[in-house]
Design brief:
Elements lengths: L16 H14 L2 E7 L5 E7 L9 E6 L3 H8 L2 E8 L4 E12 L2 H7 L24 E15 L4 H14 L7 E6 H9 L2
Antiparallel strand pairs: 1-2, 1-4, 3-6, 4-5, 5-6, 6-7
Length: 193
């Protein structure tokens, strides 16, 4: 992660907003499952695996869930969330801090719907068949306030060499570039995806 320390948070590497957005979404689209963290009413944090849905207008990230679960209560209590992604092979990662909101718009559910959702919404009687009109289907829209991510264009053997070298020398391995997207850079992206 070393890149000529700029003194910016996480030693961020300078890049254009467009490049950072492309890299961030490329990472998110390439990592199937995110850890979605909410805060319970007792103040403790809880994370659960969730699949990021297709990129679409109206939010930075979309997820689908059962609207009858406890995470909905957690989001009503405190809408602040963190969504994190990690790719083990390359050591690349993304951390998204933002706010989440529940979306029950049937048109948006139909837009994002994928047949594999049925696996998570088994047939539970008339109208509750895991299809796009199943009332249990609720979208969770995440509006990002900040994103920090690390991208690597380094071949995997070189990444492994850097990690081993770091273990031997005690110096931090150089496995990629860290970038930050702030709310101003993210906000304009929501409407025009």
């Amino acid at each position: 992660m070393s890149n000529g320390s700029t003194g910016a948070p996480h030693d961020a590497t300078p890049a254009s907003t467009e490049k950072k957005l492309d890299q961030m979404y490329g990472l998110v689209e390439g990592i199937e499952i995110a850890m979605f963290t909410t805060r319970r009413q007792d103040g403790h944090l809880v994370s659960r695996p969730m699949a990021t849905q297709a990129r679409a207008a109206g939010a930075d990230l979309w997820f689908v869930t059962d609207g009858e679960t406890h995470k909905m209560d957690e989001l009503v209590h405190d809408a602040h969330v963190n969504v994190s992604y990690y790719r083990d092979k390359t050591r690349e990662w993304v951390s998204v801090s933002g706010t989440a909101r529940m979306v029950n718009d049937r048109a948006k559910i139909h837009e994002l719907y994928r047949p594999d959702w049925k696996a998570w919404f088994p047939d539970d009687g008339p109208g509750r068949d895991g299809g796009p009109d199943d009332p249990r289907l609720t979208l969770v829209a995440v509006d990002a306030h900040s994103v920090v991510y690390m991208v690597s264009n380094t071949p995997r053997p070189v990444v492994l060499f850097e990690v081993v070298k770091g273990m031997i020398t005690g110096q931090q391995p150089d496995v990629g570039e860290t970038h930050i997207l702030n709310e101003g850079e993210l906000g304009g992206n929501r409407a025009g995806v």
